[in-house]
Amino acid sequence: LGLGCWALGGKGWGGQSERDSVEVMETAFDQGFRHFDTARIYGVSEELVGKFLKGRRSEIFLASKVYPRGDASFVRSELEQSLKKLRTDFIDLYYLHWPVEGWDIREQVEALAAAREEGLIGSIGVSNYSVGQVQAALEVAPVDYLQIGYHLFWREAEAALIPFCRENGIRVVTYS
Fold first, then answer.
1. Are 36 and 60 in contact (CB under 8 A)?
2. pLDDT on residue 27
3. Burial readout 146-160 (b: 16 or more C-beta within 10 A, e: otherwise)
4. Residues 94, 115: contact at Cβ < 8 Å?
5. Could you report the average pLDDT of every consecutive run of 10 residues in the chain (176 residues)?
6. Residue 143 — left, alpha, or beta (φ > 0 → left; ψ -120 to 50 → alpha)?
7. Could you count the other beta carbons within 10 Å of the beta carbon of residue 56?
8. Could you give the residue ranges of the DSSP H alpha helices within 31-120?
9. Rounded distance, CA 8 to CA 14, Å?
10. If residue 168 lies in a helix (H) or strand (E), which one and from where to where?
11. Most buried residue, 9, 17, 66, 139, by most Cβ within 10 Å?
């Protein structure tokens, strides 16, 4: 199980107290959650998760995301800011979060592949990408994870996305 930390950052969810946010993370951790998912665009979420990681980093699978509205240098800059806010030198899984029309997916994936080679990230992920967009990313580097909205009422992914991921060895992480 993973803890999605969007609401902890306050962006789009109203004001959140730091005390309540830390309590949520502590309770999740105590209950066995080890996958914590955040993003640069989630307000102060990365900073809060970064504070929470102190003394626990080796026990947590950390995922974060970049909203890829730029070229490779933008993706790299955002990654460096995430590392700083998360107070770590390594992110287990780093996603391109929501494809943005007009930006070259291949160039963005190249930036993540370089970061993986440097040891800054462990895995490359894409979030909310279509089969065609994942195929374009795969032309550049292996994609390890696809994150999608999926539940009893959102089952469209069963038709093409999930079988495509199964065929290509891509792990699926779901939200909502």
1. yes
2. 97
3. bbbebeeeeeebeee
4. yes
5. 86 77 96 96 91 96 95 96 97 95 92 98 97 96 97 95 98 94
6. beta
7. 13
8. 45-53, 72-86, 105-117
9. 10
10. helix 161-168
11. 66
Q: What is the reported pLDDT for 140?
A: 96
Q: Which residue reads 């009893």 in tokens? A: 152
* Order of strands, sheet of 145-149, starting from the edge strand that comes earlier in the sequence: 2-4, 35-37, 61-66, 91-97, 121-127, 145-149, 171-175
The residues carrying an active-site annotation are 42
Full-model pTM: 0.94
Q: What is the number of other CB atoms lying within 10 angstroms of the CB of residue 101?
A: 5
- Looking at residue 129, its amino acid is Y
For tokens 């066995």, name the residue. 32
Token digits for 123? Answer: 């895995």
